[in-house]
Design a protein that fits this description.
This protein is α/β, with parallel strands linked by helices and about 280 residues long. Helices cover about 35% and strands about 20% of the residues. It has eight helices and ten strands. Strands 1, 2, 3, 4, 5, 6, 7, 8, 9 and 10 form a ten-stranded mixed sheet that branches. The protein is globular. InterPro entries: Glyco_trans_2-like, Nucleotide-diphossugar_trans.
């Protein structure tokens, strides 16, 4: 009967061709020590490198904990988005944690700490923590996200994302359905955090409990800086209508900041071209 009861938390993992990393990711969840039950929901986007076979082995070994979403073909549109959404739909727990298949957790009490906090503080919707960044096989301090206070709100988050995906736990089913644009959005985690933050505050636990693996060849990192800025600008413009006027104004400030960066970059490139032209004439 235990398996039929609602799990306290659903651990959401998505993966695609993560053969070299997925075992470390799953083991970080298996070692969790909790006084509540949890489930691990893993979505595989039709991997071809042996990842799927590893997942099946784990599911057979831990049938009461692991459930698989084995997609027969990759989703159309934004890479991984359909895998993310269909796997999220399988998460029935009171809370949801996120972790990509190439990242991993390092603290066996991670879930217990985060769920304990959210249970004791119903006015909070999200809880996240510090992570290390793994780059070129070396662990580094996180210089990607900005430093913020232990408690923040949607007004802070609207200035820019500071939550690593592998660190977050949030209350499930805070709203009925995702906006239509979510399916097309090039950014999923930040959009989801913003939507959840409409319903409560955000807690930061100042402890290292996970590792974010940075790939220079990832879909996002491999794009030119100018292209990333344009994608982000379009993304912000498309999500702003889902929030109240005050949050829209903060998002507009973020949009203006990116526009200034883009314009400055375009101007610098133009000046460089002009200088090169006159040098050639000489």
């Amino acid at each position: 009967m235990e398996g039929l009861k609602q799990k306290k938390i659903s651990c959401h993992i998505i993966t695609f061709n993560h053969k070299d990393y997925i075992s470390q990711c799953i083991e970080g969840l298996i070692i969790q020590r909790t006084n509540f039950s949890f489930e691990i929901i893993i979505g595989d986007d039709n991997s071809t490198d042996g990842t799927r076979e590893i997942l099946v082995e784990y599911a057979l070994k831990y049938p009461d904990i692991i459930k698989l979403n084995l997609r027969s073909k990759r989703g159309k549109g934004v890479p991984g988005k359909q895998n993310f959404l269909t796997t999220l739909a399988m998460c029935k727990g009171q809370y949801v944690s996120l972790c990509d298949g190439d990242d991993y957790w390092t603290d066996p009490l991670k879930l217990q700490k985060q769920v304990d906090f959210l249970e004791a503080n119903p006015d909070y919707a999200i809880c996240y923590h510090k992570v290390k960044v793994l780059k070129n096989e070396a662990l580094e301090e996180d210089t990607i996200t900005q430093k913020v206070p232990e408690t923040t709100t949607i007004k802070d988050l609207a200035k820019g994302n500071y939550i690593h995906t592998c660190s977050v736990v949030f209350r499930n089913n805070l709203f009925d359905k995702l906006p239509k644009y979510f399916d097309k959005s090039p950014v999923g985690d930040y959009f989801l955090h913003m939507l959840n933050a409409r319903y409560g505050k955000i807690k930061f636990i100042d402890e290292y409990m996970g590792v974010y693996r940075l790939h220079e060849t990832s879909v996002w990192s491999s794009k030119a800086q100018a292209k990333r800025e344009q994608i982000w600008l379009n993304f912000l413009r498309n999500i702003r209508k889902n929030f109240d006027k005050e949050v829209q104004n903060i998002l507009d400030d973020q949009i203006r900041q990116y526009q200034k960066l883009r314009d400055k970059r375009i101007k610098a490139r133009f000046v460089k071209i002009i200088k090169s032209f006159f040098c050639l004439k000489k």
